Amino acid sequence: MVSSLFQDEATASLMIYARSFIRKLGSSFINQLGWRDMWAFVAQRINNEKFVYAEGFQHSAIEHDWAPPVTIHTTVPLRPESVVRCSWEDNEENHRRRKFCDTFDGYTGICNCNNPASIAFEPPALPDGTRIELPVLVMASNRPQYLFRMLKTLREVQGLMPSMVTVFIDGFFDEPAYVARMFGLKVDQHEPISEKNARIAQHYKKSLTASFARYPDANYLVILEEDLDISPDILTYFQQLLPVLEKDESLYCISAWNDQGYAHTAKDPAMMYRVETMPGLGWVLSRKLYKGELEPVWPGPDVFWDWDMWMRDNEMRKNRECIIPDVSRTYHFGATGLNMNPFMQHYYFTKHALNDKRNVKLNVDIMYKDIYEKELGRLIREAEVLDHSKNPCTNRNDFVPSTKDKSYVFYIRMDHASDWTTWFNIARCLKIWDLDARGFHKSLWRLWVNESHVLIVGCPASPHCSNKPSDVIPIDIQNKVTRPPD
């Protein structure tokens, strides 16, 4: 769940590159625009020529109060355009291209007359020439440029069957449907129900129900979203882990996303964790779970919860866990949405790691419940205990020695399983997700610092505190720490 603190303040969404772009268009006031100021700007760019028609600006003189309204009046003249009819080769792909380009513009390279970008959706096969028979749902709304970017990465996924990909669009929007059909994919559009988070939840329910009905022999679905880049090995990652999800009743899902998997805290694409939170952002759902448990009690149109927060609630999770990768198989790039803005994207998502390697072999047996617990015990016993006099919030640079590929353990204060105070402060210091507690297993987190594997254990809450040396006092940080600047 993303904080609503900045939802009514546009300047929170104006990052440096956006201000720079608007300034280059000819704005005189964009660099002065601050909290609660009012601003309006009308400009046009045709090829390399810029036309500024009007701009207005009012400064907020009182903190937290809105500035006076801005009103501008201008006329934008119609300018003639040259319409070019490209002489593309006559084939099925270019028929789709022409239909798209006769209607829309702004998609880099697609409509070039000379050497247009490919719109073929031909993912590479597995090394043995086969493909993975898993239905793939792409959840979309009216963000066609996002969908375009996402599908370009999806077509690089090894083993993907294009015939089993369906783009589900929440509403009858032409442009995203054209984008999906340009790539030759199936499109399913339906009438929106309710609004805001309830509308999104109904979109998911309709799409999941329709998919299980469309593929009656499928025991699993892969759920992706339109604002995700996709790793080329996401399906082989899922495929290797499906037998564990099938056999281990203590598991809830397999996710492609690691909430704490930033470029500076993730390293090994073959490493996986078990966590007590449902990450979403690219995941596998079983028919048994959906039809037997979730679908009958799915939140109705009058319930304004986030569907993923509902699924994270232990009433639905029932103490089961999800498997996640150390290095994520998706990358969240969407900076606009109901619960997202550019500030949040820059602050919490931009620096996430995304795996770019194919054919990553996983040791999946280690993900079974009992084996995983034994492996954690082994890792902690063999790990070197970090110097607990070095608080990571005051000694960030030398908190973990720069000795690559070594394992360390670090103990923090957690009086009970929901005592997150010290963890939130550690998360802020390490510049990872700190809005709520995620990515933990029995009050234990795993991540990489200075390219070394670090296990952070909350004591006395975690059963793994039994391995703590008697002379080690867990770090206790009760006063709120300010997140370090980038």
TrEMBL record:
Transmembrane segments: none annotated. Pathway: Protein modification; protein glycosylation. InterPro entries: Glyco_trans_13, Nucleotide-diphossugar_trans, O-linked_mannose_GnT. Its cofactor is Mn(2+). It comes from the Eukaryota. It catalyses: N(4)-(alpha-D-Man-(1->3)-[alpha-D-Man-(1->3)-[alpha-D-Man-(1->6)]-alpha-D-Man-(1->6)]-beta-D-Man-(1->4)-beta-D-GlcNAc-(1->4)-beta-D-GlcNAc)-L-asparaginyl-[protein] (N-glucan mannose isomer 5A1,2) + UDP-N-acetyl-alpha-D-glucosamine = N(4)-{beta-D-GlcNAc-(1->2)-alpha-D-Man-(1->3)-[alpha-D-Man-(1->3)-[alpha-D-Man-(1->6)]-alpha-D-Man-(1->6)]-beta-D-Man-(1->4)-beta-D-GlcNAc-(1->4)-beta-D-GlcNAc}-L-asparaginyl-[protein] + UDP + H(+). The cofactor is mostly bound to the substrate. Its main location: Golgi. It is found in: Golgi apparatus membrane. It is a single-pass type II membrane protein. Its EC number is 2.4.1.101. Keywords: Glycosyltransferase, Golgi apparatus, Manganese, Membrane, Metal-binding, Signal-anchor, Transferase, Transmembrane, Transmembrane helix. Belongs to the glycosyltransferase 13 family. PANTHER family: PROTEIN O-LINKED-MANNOSE BETA-1,2-N-ACETYLGLUCOSAMINYLTRANSFERASE 1 (PTHR46396). Initiates complex N-linked carbohydrate formation. Essential for the conversion of high-mannose to hybrid and complex N-glycans. This is Alpha-1,3-mannosyl-glycoprotein 2-beta-N-acetylglucosaminyltransferase. It comes from Porites evermanni.
